[in-house]
Amino acid sequence: MLLAIDVGNTETVAAVWDGDVLIQDWRLATERDVTGDELASRHEGILRLRGASLADLDEMVVASVVPTVTPSYELLSRNYLGSEALVLGPGVRTGISLAIDNPRELGADRLANAVAARDRFDGPSIVVDFGTATTFDAVSGQGEYLGGAIAPGIETSLLALSQRAARLLTVDLVAPERAIGKSTAESMRSGAVFGTVDMVDGLIGRFRDELDGDAAVLATGGLAGVVAELSDEIDEHDRLLTLDGLRLVHELNREGGGS
């Protein structure tokens, strides 16, 4: 069985796959100074609570945007799974070409999202990933990664606002009943949630114009659910899209196909 790991700036998401069947998944807070043994202990603890163990797993695939954590996962795989981890990055087959100025700048999570979107749709697609940043990625119908956009994440924006404005609160991210807030908290929720929805829908519209027609739109990431149900442009919400992309990358490299 395969352990897929998506290391984000705020959270790390993990999933166990048996072929293309998702067995289970979980989330951990990302810590930048963690060791391989500490990671093994944390993941083993969660697996044991669910009646499983790292000993049940054979291989690992990793996408990481936190460089200090990547070697720790490589050690975990080597010492506890008995195999070398496949780390998504330069030299790894993905089945898509990167039509951007500097492919090395592209985050591994965004690349995994593009792989999953390309597998799911025959035509062009757009992926919106809601995390520490809100990222937009465009994939052509021919399987080219065309580029994207990066905006502050919802929680990131709210945190910055509350830190810079002494009288503003930290609020929960839930959609208010109306756009015109009757309190400070309701006004902040309106700006954060409805403002993000309109920003997302507007950028998707611009992306679709540049793609010369319609494109399927996928939403993923820890905060996607807040926006996806209010958006007029998002077609599907898949909270584990990145991990599905990692599974596909692992299969491609194990089988020796792709480009």
Describe the structure.
The protein has a 6-stranded mixed sheet, with helices on both faces. It has a 5-stranded mixed sheet with strand order 3-2-1-4-5, with helices on both faces. It has 2 domains: 2-87, ATPase, nucleotide binding domain (Nucleotidyltransferase, domain 5); 123-240, ATPase, nucleotide binding domain (Nucleotidyltransferase, domain 5). It has 7 helices and 11 strands. It has helices at 36-49, 70-81, 108-120, 154-164, 184-210, 224-228, 241-255, and strands at 2-7, 11-18, 21-29, 59-64, 86-87, 97-98, 125-130, 133-139, 144-152, 216-220, 236-237. Helix content is 37%, strand content 24%. It has 259 residues and is of the alpha/beta class.
Draw up the topology in text:
Blueprint: E1 2-7, E2 11-18, E3 21-29, H1 36-49, E4 59-64, H2 70-81, E5 86-87, E6 97-98, H3 108-120, E7 125-130, E8 133-139, E9 144-152, H4 154-164, H5 184-210, E10 216-220, H6 224-228, E11 236-237, H7 241-255
Parallel strand pairs: 1-4, 4-5, 6-9, 7-10, 10-11
Antiparallel strand pairs: 1-2, 2-3, 7-8, 8-9
Could you give a short description of this structure?
By secondary structure, the protein is of the alpha/beta class.
The gyration radius over C-alpha positions equals: 19 Å
Helix content: 25-40%
Number of helices: 7
CATH superfamily of the largest domain: ATPase, nucleotide binding domain
Strand content: 15-25%
Shape: globular
What keyword list fits this structure?
alpha/beta, Nucleotidyltransferase, domain 5, 2 domains, 259 residues
